[in-house]
Each structure stands twice: as C-alpha cells, then as structure tokens.
Amino acid sequence: MAKGTIKDGARAMPFTDMADPYETGQRPILIISIAAFTLSLACVLLFGAQGDWSKGLTIGATVLFAAGGGILILLRGLRRTQSLPDLDQLSELIGALPQPAALGDAHGDLVVANVAYRAMFGALGPEEAMNKAADDGSYICDIAGTMCCGYRLWSFADQTPDRNKDIDLTVGSIGQGLSEIEIGCARADASGKVIYINEQLALWLGVADASEIPLLTARLLIDPKRAELKTGGGGTLLKKVFSEGDFPPDAPSSNETPSGRVVLVHRPGVATGAAAEADTSLLKSLFDAAPVGLAIVDGDGRLSEFNKSFKRFAPNRMPRRGDMLIDYLAADDRESLKSDIAQTVHQAVVASPREVAFNTQPPRTGQVFISPLDRVEGRAALVHLIDTTQQKSLERQFVQAQKMQAVGQLAGGVAHDFNNLLTAIIGFCDLLLVRHGPGDHSFSDIMQIKQNANRASNLVRQLLAFSRQQTMRPKVLMITDVLADLSNLLRRLIGETVQLNMIHGRDVGAVRVDQGQFEQVIMNLAVNARDAMEGGGTLTIRTKAVGPDDTLVQNYSVMPLGHYVLIEVSDNGHGIPPDIVNKIFEPFFSTKDVGKGTGLGLSTVYGIIKQTGGFIFVDSTEGDGSTFRVYLPVHNHVPEETQPQAPAAARDLTGKGTILLVEDEDAVRMFASRALGNKGYTVLQAASGEEGLAIVREEVGNIDLLISDVVMPNMDGPTLVSKARELRADLRVVFISGYAEDVFRKGVGEGSDDFLFLPKPFSLKQLAETVKTALS
C-alpha cells in the first residue's frame, strides 16, 4: 500500500493508503455489461442465421436480464459504500473528543488521531498505545478496536483519582462521627466559601446548613489566624484550620496544590477549682451591680437567674426562680414577650427591642432586650430590662408643652384679630353715646352693645393670658398677705357649703407677680374646686417654701432646681378622670354643662403662671379629689410698699396739635380719627407704613405726635418710627396693638422707653387720655 498522512487538523503524520471503494466497485459492472451485451448479440445472430430469430431474441433477452440482476446487486453494495462518512468528517468527530482517541484500519495501522492522543502517545499505533497506557497506569483503554464506519475506534480514559471528591467523602464521613463527640467540622473551597458543616457546628452557630452562615462568621471560621469563634448565644468556640493537603491522611501524593481548608471546632470545658470559684464570684458581682434589670430565662420564659436591679420591676412581690417572666408584665404585653423569648432560645436570634408595661403600682414602663445565651445545661435567653418610666413622663410633658404652645400661638393670633374688631365696636359705641345721652331711647341699646363688647374683650384677655401675651404689671409681693386679703372674697365665692382652710408655712419668701392676675389664678382654682364638690366639702389653700433638695421639686424634671414658693389648692371633690387630666389646661375644654363655663378658666391660670415664670402641676385621683400645685420663683428683693392713691380729679381731655395716625384697619382708623378730631386735634391719616413715612417727610415740622399700629403689611410700626426719627429725633410716639406690651417691648429691645403703648381694645376716653399724656 502507498504511504499517506494522518489527519489531525493542524499537523500531518505518516499513514498507509487504502483503495477507493467507489472506484473498485465500478470495474465489475463495466465488465459484466460488455460481456452480457456481446453474448446477447452473438445468440441473436447465431439463431437468426439458422432462421430461428424468435429463439435467438429470447435467449439474448435472458442473458441481458441476468446481467442486469448482477449489476443491480453490485450497485446496492456500491450505494452502501457511498453512504458511509468520509475521512474528513470522521477526523472532525475524533478531534472533538476530550480524551485520547484514534481510528485505525483493519491491519492495525493508524489512520486518524486527535490532539490528546498525539500528546499522550505520539505516532504510536493503537495497539502500541494500549500497551503503553497499561504500563503507565495513568490511562486505560476503554474502547479497543471497535468497528466504526469501516474503521477501528480506539479510546483511552484518565484513571487519575478525583481528589476533591475523595476529600468530600472523607470530611463528610468524619464530620458525622465528630458530631457524636460534640466536635464541629467545616470545609471551605478555594474561594473561601464554606461548603460543608456537620450537625454539631450547625447547632452551635444556630443555622441549618452551610448556606445560612453569615458572611462575617464564615470569614472568621476559616481564618487560620483566629483561634476563637463567638457564637450567636455569646459562647466561645476554639478552632483549628487545616489545609486540604492534610485530608485524607493516606491520600497519594499529588502535584496539585490544595487550596481549600478544613476546620475542626470544639467548645472549651468549664474551669474547676479555685479559679472557677473566683470567676463565678466576679461574674455574680458584675451581674448584680448592673444598673439595668438582668434576668436569665429558659425557652418557656421561667426565671433561673436575676440581679438586684430586676427587683425594681417587681415591687409588689419577691421574685423567685421558676417564676414566669411574663407574670411581671401587663396583660396586653405578655403574649408578645413570650413569643420573643421562644424565638430567641430556639432560633438563636436577637429579638427586636420591645416597649412593655409592668404589672406594678404605681405603673412602670420599660424596654426589653432579649438575646440568646449558651449555657452548660443548654441554650437560654438573657433579658435586659430598662426602666423608661421617667423618660416616658418627660416625653408626655414635652408633647403637652408643645401642644399648649401651638394652641397658645393660635389663641394669640385670634385674640389680636378680635381686638381690632372690638376696638372699632367699643369706639363707635362711645361716639354714639356722645350724641345719645341717658335720656335718649337709644341709650340702653348702645350700652348693651358696649357691655357685650367688653365681655368679649375679657374673653380675648383670657386667651392672651393663656398664650402668655397679655400685658403684665408685676411687683414684689408676699403671697401670704395677698391670700389673707383675698380670703373674704373667696369665702363669698365658694359659698357656705364649702369650708375654706388656709395654712401658711414658715419663711415663705416674696415673689414678683402681677397681683391682679395672681388673684385671678386663685379665684379660678377655687371656683373649679367648688364645682367639683357639689354636696359641699373642704377647700384647702396651703403655702410652703421649698428648696432644690425638696422631693417635691425633684419630682418634676421640667422644673429647674431652685427656691420656690409653693401654693397648693386642694379639694375633696370627685377628682379628674385619668383620660382627660392632660386636657384640662387646653382652652375651651370643659366638663361642665353648656352655659356653665367658658372652658378658659384653667387655660388662663396656665398662661398667667407660665408668663410669670412659674410652674403648675395637678395630682388627681378619681373619687378622692384634686390638688393643684403652683410653684413661683422666690424673689430676693424687699416687697414694694403699696401707697393708697387718692381719687384722681376729672381731667380735661381736649387739646390742640397735629397728630399723624397710621393704622391699616379702616374701622379702627376711622374711629380714632373722629374721636381725636372731636377733642380738638388735627388728624392726618395713613393706611400703611409707607404712606405714613411719606406724610412725615412732607409735614416733618408740623407733626406733634405719631400714633402707629405695630403690626402692618410691608413696613411695620417700629420700622416707621425708626425712619421718622431719622428725620426728626424728638418726635413723640404712641404705639397701639392687639398684642401685649411685654411681647412688643421684647421685639423692639429692652430699654426702649421713649414711647407710650396703648393696648387694643381701647375706648374713646383711654385714647384721649393717652394722647393728652404724650403731648403734656
């Protein structure tokens, strides 16, 4: 046979040539065809020469038919040969195999070989390659000369052992046994991912399998530099990290460098002897010295250990081991806490903090933190109890103060707008009364309008008192003297069915208050006490000096430590229900029947005390009565002597001069202009600050007095006065406003006494007197 080449796609190697089966199959067909045609023609001519053409044709046809059958058989074989894959296709198939593979002919010569075969065996024939593989032991011939498409197929399989699979099987079998003796086992792959943990380690870590281990825990677990590992229950595990090269111990050597890790974990034993006793004593001391309540409970919530601070949450009973923790809580919080404890113990997870109420008297609130705890006798839960009673009280007081401040701002704004309206109503009533005297039939109607306007003015004044925006005239007073003078009025006010007791303490200091407003506070509290004692009772007013070390002062965290005068107003009436005690200082809140109260009594008290710099608190028990405690800061200056004033003589309120009146409310400006004009003054009017400033520039030398509203759009009153005095420094000024003078003076700065202030609503007489005083 001729020499050819081995086909491997990239490189040619020698091989033995073979005849083309297609060419070999064509030769017999051609020979048979020529012979059959010649024989058939000879038969026809031979018998035709003898005159028997019919017999000659029959024999010739038979010869041709027999030749055709032979040709048909040869063609079938040829077609079968042509349907086999050609050598190029077989070469591609062999080349795609990953293991060494080759095709050989019937004589054992190599025809086609893939790259893996050539790398392993070179140019060796299939049988020689099989012998070499048997000698090396690295490969085994799994297909030896099987006929395939007219060729013999040879294939070789790698019989090197799978080291990773061996390690998996070894670690898995060892891990099961280690769980029986309480030793944990884990394996990580080359990337550091933990791919296996045994049952014991899963129990310690509180997970079901390796996929649930947190990333940080997994990193610490396989870190060879760390000898300890903390569990979710607070326990400590000791560990040793091995390279996979050490597993299994009897594994044959390999050139492959192992990159995975195997970890063995165990829990250290309990110390014994004197050292253990010392550690236990220290831990017990730390446990008891903790400022928060600590308790150790099992999965059912039963107490096994607790510290001294825990006893604060059970003042009505002595805690004992075996008690259910949930019995110390209010009924509404028991089921939720029981569920948290069970979840923490069984799943080794830290529960979310929970706000609870304790079953104590007086009621206490707290926060509960639950975390898992590993103990020798099994898993438990460590419960932290933090008392939040005082914090919640401060939060409620802060929210209440914010609410009162917001309502006060609203009330102050409403009062300002009402004061503008009432100024116009009262002022025009005064103008009408000038023309309609007591004998006029319209006099009584006008007086009714004015009296009701004055009543409305009193309500507005109470709103301003609540919002701490009313005008105050404070002076230094002795509270005991004020109460003594007020006692007769109080007895008439509360009636004969209520007994009044006044008890004064020693060394009660002086305070700086507005006497009229303080008397209003006492009268409002006395009236409320009288209404709470419908069948009669006792009203007690007690005064006392308290200092910074007094428990009464320390009970209220919102009150700065200092020296105060305490005024207690107590009754033995029906008390205040707990659900409304936080609402009693709100304006227009009242529990009285319709028409029996405005709902502004206690709100006025609250505003006056706050504006004075004091504090007011209420303690009430439904059915036992209420006690209002008023704390006023002690004033160290000598009380002012009140001199009796002689009745003022009638004053002439007419005058002369030019007055600039700046007021954005048309009704107020119209009334004031007519009132001053009737008194003999020349009045220039302006509806805004800008318009008033323009008039000042034109008439700067002729204006004797500037009367200006305080709050106006764009340019307000103080800005107008400042710019006007740049043009004329000695310009006299009167401010009018629906807000309190104290609030206004704080806005323009302390020490600004070079102006007069007239609060709204004002009457015609009050306006004329103020103008007369300013010009005199």
Short description:
The chain has 776 residues and is of the alpha+beta class. The strands form seven sheets. It has a five-stranded antiparallel β-sheet with strand order 8-7-11-10-9, sandwiched between helices. It has a five-stranded antiparallel β-sheet with strand order 13-12-16-15-14. Keywords: Kinase, Membrane, Phosphoprotein, Transferase, Transmembrane, Transmembrane helix.
What features would you describe in this structure?
- The chain is α+β, with helices and mostly antiparallel strands and 776 residues long.
- It has six domains: 1-83, no CATH class; 99-160; 163-266, PAS domain (Beta-Lactamase); 281-387, PAS domain (Beta-Lactamase, 2-Layer Sandwich), CATH 3.30.450; 472-633, Heat Shock Protein 90 (2-Layer Sandwich); 658-775, 3-Layer(aba) Sandwich (Rossmann fold), CATH 3.40.50.2300.
- The protein contains 21 helices and 28 strands.
- α13 runs parallel beside α14 (515-532).
- It is elongated, with a radius of gyration of 56 Å.
- The protein starts with a strand and ends with a helix.
What proportion strand?
15-25%
Straight-line N-to-C gap: 149 Å
State the domain count.
Answer: 6
Would you identify the CATH H-level superfamily of the largest domain?
Histidine kinase-like ATPase, C-terminal domain
Q: So what's the overall shape?
A: elongated
- The whole-number mean of residue pLDDT values reads 77
Q: How is the main sheet built?
A: 5 strands, antiparallel
Fraction of residues in helix = 40-55%
The strand line-up of the biggest sheet is 8-7-11-10-9
CATH topology of the largest domain: Heat Shock Protein 90
Protein name: histidine kinase
Modified residues (4-aspartylphosphate): 709
Domain Response regulatory: 658-775
Domain Histidine kinase: 413-636
